[in-house]
Automatic annotation (TrEMBL):
Signal peptide stretch: 1-19
Coiled-coil segments on the chain, per record: none
Domain Gamma tubulin complex component C-terminal, residue spans: 403-729
PANTHER family, per the entry: GAMMA TUBULIN COMPLEX PROTEIN, GAMMA-TUBULIN COMPLEX COMPONENT 4
Function: Component of the gamma-tubulin ring complex (gTuRC) which mediates microtubule nucleation.
Assigned keywords, A-Z: Cytoplasm, Cytoskeleton, Microtubule, Signal
Protein name: Gamma-tubulin complex component
One biological process term in Gene Ontology: mitotic cell cycle
Keyword Cytoplasm: yes
Disordered, as annotated region: 306-341
Species the sequence originates in: Digitaria exilis
Residue stretches of biased makeup (Polar residues): 307-321, 330-341
Main location per the UniProt record: cytoplasm
Segments forming domain Gamma tubulin complex component protein N-terminal: 2-398
Amino acid sequence: MLHELLLALLGFTGDFVLDASPARRRAAPLDAESGGGDADGELGPAFRLAPDLTFLQPSERSAIERLISLGFYYRELNRFATESRDLSWIQSSVDVSSPYDDKTQKGKARKGSVYRRAIANGITEILSVYRSAVLQVEQNLLSDPLPILATVTHGLNKFEVLLPPLYELVTEIEQKDIRGGQLLNLLHKRCHCGVPELQSCIQRLLWHGHQVMFNQLTSWMVYGILQDQYSEFFIRRQDDRDGENDSSQRDVSDKFMQKLAKDTSLSSWHTGFHVSLDMLPEYIHMRVAESILFAGKAIRVLRNPSPGATLQEPINQNQSSKRSHRMQSFIGSSGSPKDLPNFSSISAEELLPQAEADRIDAMLKELKHSSEFHKRLFESAVGSIRTIAANHLWQLVVVRADLNGHLKALKDYFLLAKGDFFQCFLEESRQLMRLPPRQSTAEADLMVPFQLAALKTIGEEDKYFTRVSLRMLSYGMKSSTSQKDLQKPNASELPSQGKAASELALDGWDSIALEYSVDWPLQLFFTPDVLSKYRKVFQYLIRLKRTQMELEKSWAAVMHKDHADFSDYCKDRKNGSATQLRRQRSKPLWRVREHMAFLIRNLQFYIQVDVIESQWNVLQSHVQDSHDFTELVSFHQEYLSALVSQSFLDIGSVSRILDSIMKLCLQFCWSIEQYETRPNISEIDHITEEFNKKSNSLYTILRSSRLAGSQRAPFLRQFLMRLNFNSFFETTARGVMNSGRLRLGTAGA
């Protein structure tokens, strides 16, 4: 009987011990989830003593039934370990569901799992200890002249607190199809128990699961390869979100080659990978997971430079081209970027030395070989690896790719730091912009003044200008809107969409924009969203610059005419009464123009000096002090956000008022230029009245308490002080002066 008991302890039943479990428990345990509530009542041991054993006392029967339940738990755990360690599914498809399963049940079909195989290895270790204990009991029984049941009970007593919880664990894993990070979560929760022996066993199982995780971390953070065939890692490919539940009939080698081909794509930096929250263990913080994500992506970039990746060598100053050749290159390029002359190829070994890769590998191996998972040590190692990756990425982007030179170029052209170039461009294109832009040729029409301005102002040493190209984006309003349209606005003729658009755009030429060609690896830094923000600020600044120039040109034209009239008056004082009268009528117009110029000039000075230059100096100090790529990205985002916010581009009410003011200024300039030939007092009075209302509204909004408490406050106060240095704006905003009168002389005093 004792030998029958020992065989039952190893899962073998017979006449003495009967197996009462249903056939489906032995054959298809993984379908328990579809069995519904029946499984809940059959989780207990299914081994029973034969009912015809009448020679056993009730106490003996109770002790034996408690012992043979260990045999049932052993058999089920051994079955789980055997099935999970079976590698036959590697040769088959990923989906190992039955061919008779309905297509709607594919999501519930079991897939291969390297984490479950690792847990099975740990369970096999525990079962090996159990088998050794059974063998020791057998030896004790054979050596004892009077074998008793107590020998068996004493030898296997400790497993009564181990095997039942482990059986519950694997049952939950099978029924809920728990895999990957979810499996680590489950084990981590089960570790918190009051039984030291059970805690040690589950910690050992968790250690085996962590071995897989550390192998995946090593592949990702040392080689930049995502080794996760069954979507169990918390770093996922972006396209896995839609395709993770689809069955795949491709073999492993084909799938690996396809993924390897994707690895060379730079687009994976921005949208290729993400942190999967459902597979992220709860004891790993999201911040740490994002650091792991960044480190792996950075290693991918460093280990897989673009096939055309090159580094620019210092340009030989002795090399120069003739002015005629340069003009030809400008015209031939049509504003598109061209390759710079001297380049040298780079290799992955230059970007990430093997010693650094070995250092990362050593840190992960130290964590992997530790008997316990130490959260603080893990986070510290991840932080160190992230720092290494960020430093080498900084070296690549900032030093090798000359990031600061490109930042300076974007400031020069998109933020109008090269004021002489844009002044020349606007002067050359002034007559062209008096006409409506032709949608088919507007961009080509602008290229001639653009190239002429470049020849006059851009030096030979500016190697970044060839990356700048001029574009005409979709119009903010009808393309026929120009000087003529602005002079004769007719709201009744515009549809509702046209009215809204006309408030947001000065004329059809407002769609002028710049594009900047960025090569690898600068796409990591200058994303499409970043360049879009630069483009938005540029369009705002070029409108402001154009408005200022028109006000200056109108003043020059009026002064030229006034000097000519004064000369005629001095020559013929007797017949100069008409000239003197015309000069007297023009004085209010000059005061209005001065008021407009005062506002536009101060606004331009505020944006270019108080905003752009001050924020640029802050950014430069960060670039000089920081050696971390992610820090630089963050500082640059803060720089752009400050430009947008402190220029009021993120406040719809303020930006609409400013656009309206610039529109009114252009209308006024074109009206007074035609004042001699076609005087229109009522139109000018209307423009003046609207300008007074808009400027007063602008001042009222800018000095509101909501803006005073924002990050704009320090520089905004300087802007308001310049506008209101003689309390004119404040007095006007309070309604002391009528907005319809032309008493504006004190504004420019």
